[in-house]
Task: structure prediction
Amino acid sequence: MPIDAANLVVSFLVGTVGAGVAGEIIKRRFTTILEVWRSQRGWKERAVTELLGPVYMQLDRTKRAFDRWDRKNLILEAEVVRKGNLAVRDLLLENPHLIPPDFAQ
Result:
């Protein structure tokens, strides 16, 4: 059965258009997934650098002060612990949008 030129042209056009539509759908879906991933990654980076890192640093500072606590240096150690706890409180109040959902429960 010979293939005539008209059938060949129609088949080529249908295949080309179908491939173009499918490619555009895949491209849009991939772009959306990539944007969501970048958004989540950016949020995680900000949460670590702007909130969790500084909170960890302050809590470590207050823990070291509390571990050294004795009767000799009560005022200094109380001031370090107090300032550290206030700094953590302020960080949490200023950046509630960066608190990971697992921590907020």
In short: Residues 19 and 25 are 10 Å apart (CA to CA). The helical segments are 5-68, 74-94. The radius of gyration is 30 Å.
